[in-house]
Amino acid sequence: MKAHKGFTLIELIIVIVVLGILAVSAAPQFINFSGDAREATLDGLKGAMNGAARSVYAKAAIQGEEDSSSYVTVSGVETVYGYPTALAAGITAALQIETADWDIAYTDNSDPGSTANTARFSPAGINDSITTTDHTTITECYVEYIDVTTAGNFPAISVVTTGC
């Protein structure tokens, strides 16, 4: 009798199917696609904030409002020192974003030009108990926009990806 060497086609197909099932069930444990997507979204929002702030500043400079330490509306956007304020009428209006897609929290110090307001934007559903008056309720996975307090400075924009 002749000895057979190798595997039959059925055995090979069964092994491939079992490996496929293992790969499909194990891959999501090692790859965090949703976290990467949220981080990319935050980076995109930061870029949009940079662009919106520069665009609004250019419009404010044309109107001669770039040195104003009080709130001035430029093209429908509330500004201080020519840049959008960290308020709904400021950076949020400049971005023209769909606010339902974001959890947004602001501080309103009501003292333009000397005390910086802060706005934090987080993808909707990441942070719980969001209020619009206390930016500290958004503690992870956000973009932070801080007002300008002196003429000639650019707003501080930073990204925190912890918890994404």
Sketch the major β-sheet: 4 strands, antiparallel
- Series of H and E elements: HHEEEHEEEE
Number of helices: 3
Low-confidence stretches: none
Report the radius of gyration as a whole number of Å. Answer: 25 Å
Protein name: MSHA biogenesis protein MshA
Pfam family, one: N_methyl
InterPro entries: N_methyl_site, Pilin-like
Label this structure with key terms.
single chain, 164 residues, alpha+beta, four-stranded antiparallel β-sheet, three-stranded antiparallel β-sheet, 3 helices, 7 strands, rod-shaped, Pilin-like, N_methyl_site, MSHA biogenesis protein MshA
Structure description:
- The chain has 3 helices and 7 strands; from the N terminus they run ααβββαββββ.
- The chain has 164 residues and is α+β, with helices and mostly antiparallel strands.
- It has one domain (33-160).
- The model has no long low-confidence stretch (mean pLDDT 86).
- This is MSHA biogenesis protein MshA.
- It comes from Pseudidiomarina salinarum.
Outline of the structure:
The protein is α+β, with helices and mostly antiparallel strands. The protein has 3 helices and 7 strands; from the N terminus they run ααβββαββββ. It comes from Pseudidiomarina salinarum.
